[in-house]
Amino acid sequence: MTAFLHVRDVTKTFFGFTALSNVSLNVTSGERLGLIGPNGSGKTTLINCISGVLQFDTGEIEFEGSAISKMPPYQRAKRGVARTFQIPKPFHSMSVAENLMVPLEYIVHGLIDVSNEDSVYKEASEILARVRLDDRRHAHPGDLSQVELRKLELARAIAARPKLLICDEAMAGLAMKEVNEILDILLELNGAGITIIMIEHIMQAVMRFSQRIVCLSAGQIICDDLPEKVMANAEVRRAYLGS
Amino acid sequence: MKTNSIVFGIFAIALPVVAYLLPALGLNEYYLYVSYIVLQYVVLATAWNVLGGYAGYVNFGTGAFFGVGAYAALFLMLAFQAPLTVQIAGAAITGALLGVGVGLLTLRLKGIFFSIATIAVAIVIETFILNWRFVGGAAGMQVIRPPVPLGFETYTRLLLVVMMILAVISLAVARYIQNSWLGRGLQALRDAEVAAECSGVPTLRLKLIACALSGGLMAMAGSTLPLYSSFIEPHSAFSLNYSVMALSMAVIGGMSRWWGPAIGAIVIAASQQFAVSASPEKHLLIVGLSLIIFVVVAPSGLVGSIQWLRKWLSPAASTGRQSERLGKP
User: Fold this and answer.
1) Is B192 within the bounds of a domain?
2) Which of A98, A177, B240, B249 could hold A94 in an S-S bridge, CB 3.0 to 4.6 Å?
């Protein structure tokens, strides 16, 4: 297990409001990390900084030994950082399978033309099968249910063949059965070698999934430990669980 | 897909020939004039759609690119006595460079803010030309046309063939974009720009390419204006009308297919030319009303209506772009 994501002293402010203050975090290859914290604690800001959607003020982020802080998101995606969005952002004018063709073309294959179109389409169907969405591959995102949209987010992220997958509340608003379905998918992906950072509010899911939990509060990491120890931590309970 | 390309290729060669032979039918010169205007709008609407339709960035600066094309051609004519082909190429390059420049300045803006910025750009460029004496400034300039080359009888006839070639070029560009990696990337960034970027799409680069192609084609459409009208002045060359018309034609024709804006251009520009003698105001009213009706009732334009009709006539017909290309249901 080699350390492959280093977040070092990252600070991000929005017009004077400090969203992240000297956040440091190491993730090792193959790890399943849970990221928790109250609303507004900076979880999404942190993964926006890692995926490149936001530029941060100071600090450094390294992925597999090279600095990625200045790279635009698409280059980070090419290096193996994929993410899902808290509010699903499907390409709504494309079918489910076509949604996957975007990362497949831009990251994996470089170009889709007549020579490889059918095989890439088959690949998209296989990825959809991994998230149990292959029966909906011709549907348009507007016709999908909430859980199907979440699966599409996941499938599109997986299509980029990531080394690190960051899931931003992939289970918010889902019923417990659906939560378990998504969890099974994530565990399967992790079993296939993908490192996963999961932001989640559903504690059952976080506890079942995580090997380690990091708790953010007001832009600072207040606890970084094994799940049971984080749950037992008095500061975490006060900040997050309100007891 | 391959047979489609062959059909497109045949049309691409046949249409300019038809344009060349049109006068032989003994048509009134007025109809040639109408055809020229219609084709000019085919180029403008198709070019507008590259950025406005595929990428979803609504550009109100069509008139600026058209005017820059016209003045670039005029400049080359005055300064170097450049032949028409050089004028067209020069205008296209100027338009493409301007597209990249404007794109770098404005593409970080989204939605309505981008659109407002493009209007501002148009005004700035027009003001620059208004104060440039060499090309006539605010008073405009009478263009002394050299004798009509290549055995054409009038400039109208020559420029009709030229504009047909330009229309075919712009349709070929739009068609290529739609069916290529570029089209997929632009469609993705139009739907969800951040998600596209995180899926590996270099969104800024793609938008700049779209700006360059769109701007280059628009300027090309303007490049024949000095020779065509033999008089040029900034106010009409940079008219906001071009922007509004190109946008309306693309919306009414349909922005999801390369041929949509062309259909819109043919319908609107042709009806406009025939309505000019009756009542141009009424025509403008009709265009405005149909724009509203299409946006509300049929947002996918005539393209959508045609597809709906096709589907209605044969329920088994495929609809999605991907399924069309892959021959899958």
Assistant:
1) yes
2) A98
Q: Which two tokens stand for residue B245?
A: 């018309």
Helix, strand or coil, per DSSP, at residue A113: coil
Residues of B near A (CB-CB distance < 8 A)?
A: 1-2, 181, 184-185, 187-188, 190-192, 194-204, 256, 320-323, 325-326, 328-329
Could you say which DSSP state residue A87 is in? Answer: S
- Cα B241 to chain centroid, rounded: 13
Residue B32 sits in a domain whose CATH number is 1.10.3470
- The answer to whether residue B68 sits within a structural domain is yes
User: How many structural domains compose chain B?
Assistant: 1
B142 contacts B231 by C-beta, under 8 angstroms: yes
Structural domain span for residue A77: 3-241
Closest CA to A61 of A89, A17, A20, A32: A20
Which is more confident, A166 or A234?
A166
pLDDT less than 70: residues of chain B:
1, 315-329
What are the CA-CA distances from residue A195 to residues A9, A168, A208, B49 (Å)? 22, 14, 16, 41
Domain that holds residue B86: 15-279
Count of structural domains, chain A: 1
Q: A86 to chain B, minimum CA–CA distance in Å? A: 11
Instruction: Using alpha carbons, list the distances in angstroms from residue A18 to A9, A11, A42, B64.
Output: 13, 8, 9, 43
Kindly list the residues from chain B whose CB atom is less than 8 angstroms away from the CB atom of residue A72.
Answer: 197, 202, 204
H helical segments located in chain A = 43-51, 73-79, 96-103, 117-130, 146-159, 176-191, 203-209, 227-232, 234-236
Cα-Cα-Cα-Cα dihedral sign, residues A14, A17, A19, A24: positive
Rounded to whole angstroms, the Cα distance separating B153 from A40 reads: 74
Mean pLDDT to the nearest integer, A193-198: 95
Q: ipTM of the predicted structure?
A: 0.91
Could A72 and B184 be called an inter-chain contact, meaning their C-beta atoms sit closer than 8 Å? no
Q: pTM to 2 decimals?
A: 0.90
